[in-house]
Design a protein that fits this description.
The complex is a heterodimer.
Chain A (H helix, E strand, L loop, with lengths): L3 H11 L4 E2 L2 H5 L14 E3 L4 H13 L4 E4 L16 E4 L6 E5 L4 E4 L5 H10 L2 E2 L12 H7 L6 H4 L6 E7 L5 E5 L11 H5 L8 E8 L1 E2 L3 E9 L2 H13 L6 E6 H10 L10 E9 L1 H17 L4 E5 L2 H12 L1 H5 L5 E4 L2 E2 L5 H14 L3 E3 L1 E3 L4 E2 L2 E4 L4 H20 L18 H20 L13
Parallel strand pairs in A: 2-4, 3-4
Antiparallel strand pairs in A: 1-2, 5-6, 6-10, 7-11, 8-9, 8-10, 12-14, 12-15, 13-14, 13-19, 16-21, 17-20, 18-21, 19-20
Helix pairs in contact in A: 1-3, 8-10, 13-14
Chain B lengths: L3 H4 L2 H6 L11 H6 L6 H12 L7 H8 L6 H5 L6 H14 L5 H10 L3 H14 L3 H6 L16 H4 L11 E6 L2 H6 L1 H13 L2 E4 L9 H4 L4 H18 L3 E4 L2 H13 L6 H4 L2 E3 H8 L11 E5 L3 H7 L3 H8 L4 E3 L15 H4 L1 H16 L5 E4 L2 H13 L5 E4 H8 L1
Parallel strand pairs in B: 1-2, 1-3, 3-4, 5-6, 5-7, 7-8
Helix pairs in contact in B: 4-7, 13-24, 16-19, 18-20, 22-23
The chains are: A alpha+beta, B alpha/beta.
The complex binds flavin-adenine dinucleotide (FAD) and iron/sulfur cluster (2 copies).
């Protein structure tokens, strides 16, 4: 699809080593963490915003699809080049340009790895809260592309709450700067917010100004084990109604636990069929008081054990176990279909029951875990892609789970985005008019439709 | 095309859900940020080869040989995919079709397996070393990067030691090529310490390479022959335990002869110990007479820490030396980039990975870095020098021996 002349030009502009076309490189950029696969025609690794601009101008002139890619850990096929063309891989643009403690902000390139940035910031007493479970490898660009969130979303919000400004290259090659180095800024449309979560369909983010907060003095992790999933869910709703604000409030069911236990060392007593993993933070006294409250409520709701950890390493172990949940489930069955529904917190118990019922009816094992504090669950269907019948049943089950979430007043995706996986369900949630206005927006940024075609809209 | 070595591990391919978490610890990926240089990319390549989307090309071979076999990905993978096995199986496919460079093949299959030829080659090597131009012509790293080969191997110069009266145990010392040719002092220290702890130490002269560099390059057949030869030699030596001071030899003797090469060596393997493991677990550490005023840091060799799960024992030996203050470095278990022949086959990548290690060592402000593997020892010296960091490097056994 890419002519030799065009490739030659790209190589001349960006350097040989930044334009890859061997079959091996193409294979390595044909996937993300879903089952969706599609080969690009070339992989381009820009080093500067100017490089990005050159690539987009050439692609736009020749109507060649461009799919931005960070670390390729997305869960919706977002960075898979469905229509071939160029994969624009931003991992080499990975410098932290500035950390400004007094202004509580950092300026970073899109390829910076989230966890790496967080460690550097902590050294300076600063805190960037968004914590997708993939943070050890996901990129800030990809986080912004999907507006990723994580356990801390309950208290601190998600990526979109930490973007002060962005530098974005449009398909026409223009460099747009939106937002500012200030916490307040209402000059014109809030384009930064629009680009956040736009899944690479509007332009390419080449730099971001991130809002930071000071590192809390203390963090306490509480692991409460329950005999029944309902008890765990009711702890979550009680904690929320009691006005507690833990930084995280996570739930894991028995299927998830058995997988996580195998690969981690997270220990809960015999007979546990659900746990709530939470964290309180802030000034020491406050964090402790809040942790005690969580503990009391856990016991009141029938917890069979409550473990409290202050020690950084041991806390980190518990959270690493939680972050590994998705991949650990892959030990049980080779194929995992991971969903990302959100329901109002009051409907959490109902949703959990519905998932279990759907699983039983389709004879499927479905693990449920997620950010219960936000009502955000990740029902994960365990299946085997080699088993056609099972895959068909998994497909219907996934559909029913979405329907149920919508019926309960919920939404299709809390943090993973739409990508390709959920494109066909989008209309159901936002309606015909919603789709129309979104498409019009897209057209005005990307008239030739080269940016990540096949995503978001059917 | 059929790929029997890969088919044997196809379950690992299925297991990989492409989550990408392994990339976060994969040293070559973290230097290049190119997917195909990372663990997940390698799994994808093996998978694509298996289902016919790729062929055994040069590029594929390169990508599969930039793996250090450091096993960090295996530890990080929550779904239990053995990336290391997949990488080795692809190397075996390449080797079985003669797709590994002729010179390398000759060295691996002919010279390394034979004690006498290897001795000769190394002797020749120490002569060549005075002619660096010749080395760069051979494509080896010219700028003083090639390790200083020692004129006489450890086994050649070793004289059976003092008679130990009423020995507590009769142990065999598996020397390994690194110690034998490049870091003989570590060998001497190990034997001396064992004797001081009441062991009668046997050093069978006919022992050969453990096979790590050979089967790690895909030559499983030769690897098997080496394993069998060593088994025979140590069988004859009639020892209660076999001790090694090299993380990779230890892993190979304990597990890989059996698990990778399919040689039935389990009975032998149960008798194999790393030097520090043996000292701490089977003998009683003696309190050294001398004391130092020394800040020391410790680098964990991949095949010792992840391969054999030995992290505490070497530290215990260090802490047992009066006056030694053990200061931990950042990421002590991260690969140093030596990885056996890797330092010579991919010098630039190896140097980059090593420099990261050198900086974490420097930041401890210790005056000595210790480790438990001759390969790491050499690489640490190279990269410290390359980064203008003056610090002495020693095998744990050397420091302990000098205090006893
Ligand atoms: C084990 C595991 C756990 C996960 N846990 C979570 C979780 O807890 N919460 C969560 O929210 N997500 C989670 N995810 C999903 C995923 O990690 C996140 O969506 C993450 O933000 C993706 O980052 P990435 O760098 O891998 O981006 P990619 O997957 O490469 O890209 C994601 C999207 O962003 C676009 N994009 C990437 N870079 C740019 C750029 N510079 N400019 C414009 N568009 C760009 C891409 O086109 C694509 O649409 C998880 C994934 C895995 C595998
Ligand atoms: S961590 Fe494991 S499952 Fe995830 S991509 Fe790597 S090998 Fe595959
Ligand atoms: S063994 Fe080490 S170098 Fe090889 S793929 Fe795994 S992490 Fe990367």
């Amino acid at each position: 699809m890419l002519s030799d002349a065009l490739l030659k030009k790209l190589r001349k502009e960006l350097g040989q080593e930044n334009v890859l076309t061997s079959d091996e490189e193409l294979v390595c950029h044909s996937y993300d963490a879903t089952l969706i696969r599609s080969l690009p025609d070339a992989v381009v690794t820009p080093r500067t915003a100017e490089d990005v601009s050159k690539v987009l101008v050439l692609a736009n002139e020749n109507a060649i699809p461009v799919t931005p890619r960070g670390s390729g850990t997305g869960l919706t096929g977002g960075s898979v080049p469905l229509r071939g063309g160029i994969v624009l891989c931003l991992t080499k643009m990975n410098s932290i340009r500035e950390i400004a403690p007094a202004d509580l902000l950092a300026v970073v390139e899109p390829g910076v790895v989230t966890g790496e940035l967080q460690r550097k910031l902590e050294e300076e007493g600063l805190f960037y809260p968004p914590d997708p479970a993939s943070l050890e490898i996901s990129s800030i660009g990809g986080n912004i592309g999907n507006s990723a969130g994580g356990p801390r979303g309950f208290k601190y919000g998600m990526t979109k709450d930490y973007i002060l400004g962005l530098e974005v290259v449009l398909p026409t090659g223009e460099l747009v700067k939106t937002g500012a180095r200030t916490v307040k800024c209402v000059t014109g449309y809030d384009l930064a917010r629009l680009f956040t979560g736009s899944e690479g369909t509007l332009g390419v983010i080449t730099s971001a100004i991130l809002r930071l907060i000071p590192v809390p003095e203390e963090r306490i992790t509480v692991l409460a084990s329950f005999k029944r999933l309902e008890d765990a869910a009711s702890l979550v709703s009680e904690a929320v109604s009691a006005g507690l604000a833990p930084s995280a409030l996570e739930i894991m069911d028995s299927v998830t636990l058995s997988a996580v236990k195998e690969s981690s060392g997270l220990n809960s007593p015999e007979g546990t069929s659900a746990v709530v993993l939470s964290e309180t933070d802030g000034f020491s006294e406050v964090a402790m008081k809040e942790a005690q409250k969580v503990r009391e409520l856990s016991i009141k709701n029938g917890a069979i054990s409550v473990q409290m950890e202050k020690d950084k390493e041991r806390r980190e172990k518990l959270w690493a176990a939680r972050r590994g949940a998705f991949a650990a489930l892959a030990r049980k069955k080779p194929t995992t279909i991971l969903e990302d529904i959100v329901v109002p917190r009051t409907k959490l118990v109902e949703m959990v029951r519905a998932v279990a019922e759907i699983g039983r009816r389709h004879q499927l094992v479905i693990a449920t875990y997620g950010h219960a504090g936000d009502g955000n669950l990740h029902p994960t269907i365990l299946c085997d892609k080699r088993d056609e019948d099972e895959m068909r049943r998994a497909g219907s089950a996934a559909g029913e789970i979405f329907e149920r979430a919508l019926d309960l007043g919920g939404t299709l995706s809390g943090e993973h985005g739409i990508g390709f996986e959920k494109a066909r369900f989008l209309k159901k949630e936002i309606g015909e008019a919603g789709i129309k206005i979104m498409k019009r927006l897209k057209d005005s940024f990307d008239p030739k439709g080269i940016m990540n075609p096949g995503k978001m809209f059917e | 095309m059929q790929y029997p070595h890969i088919s044997a591990h196809s379950e690992d391919i299925v297991r990989c859900i492409k989550c990408g978490l392994c990339k976060s610890v994969c040293p070559p990926y973290l230097e290049t940020f190119v997917e195909s240089e990372g663990a997940r990319g390698r799994v994808a390549l093996v998978e694509a080869l298996q289902d016919g989307r790729l062929t055994l090309s040069h590029i594929l071979s390169d990508r599969i040989f930039t793996c250090l076999n450091c096993k960090a990905c295996v530890e990080a993978c929550p779904s239990g995919c053995n990336v290391d096995d997949l990488v080795l199986s692809l190397r075996a496919e390449l080797a079985s079709r003669g797709k590994i460079g002729l010179i390398k093949r000759l060295v691996l299959n002919d010279i390394v397996p034979s004690r006498t030829k290897l001795d000769l080659a190394v002797k020749a090597g120490s002569v060549f070393q005075r002619f660096p131009g010749l080395f760069s012509m051979l494509g080896l790293d010219g700028e003083g990067g090639f390790p200083k080969l020692q004129g006489r191997s450890f086994i050649d110069s070793h004289r059976p030691g003092r008679r130990v009266r009423n020995p507590v145990m009769r142990v065999g010392f598996f020397v390994g090529c690194g110690t034998n040719f490049l870091h003989t002092e570590a060998g001497e220290a190990i034997v001396w310490v064992l004797e001081r702890h009441g062991c009668e130490v046997i050093v069978p002269r006919e022992q050969v390479c453990c096979g790590t560099p050979v089967f790690n390059s895909g030559e499983f057949g030769t690897g098997r022959k080496l394993a069998e030869r060593n088994l025979e030699v140590f069988e004859k030596a009639k020892v209660d335990a076999v001790i090694t001071g090299c993380g990779s030899c230890g892993l190979t003797l304990k597990k890989e002869w059996h698990e990778v090469l399919g040689v039935d060596a389990r009975e032998f393997s149960n008798k194999v110990y790393d030097f520090s493991e043996f000292l701490v677990k089977e003998l009683k550490l003696q309190k050294p007479r001398r004391s130092f005023l020394l800040a020391v840091t410790y680098h964990d060799p991949c095949h010792l820490a992840r391969g054999q799960g030995i992290k505490d024992e070497p530290r215990e030996i260090l802490k047992n030396i009066p006056g030694v203050n053990l200061v931990e470095m950042r990421e002590s278990t991260r690969c140093c980039g030596g990885a056996g022949t890797f330092a010579f086959t991919w010098p630039e990548l190896s140097r980059k990975i090593g420099s990261r290690k050198a900086l974490s060592i420097r930041d401890t402000a210790a005056s000595m870095v210790t480790t438990s593997c001759p390969g790491c020892y050499l690489q640490l010296r190279r990269v410290l020098r390359a980064n203008d960091i003056e610090m002495s490097v020693k095998h744990v056994a050397e420091l302990y021996a000098s205090a006893l």
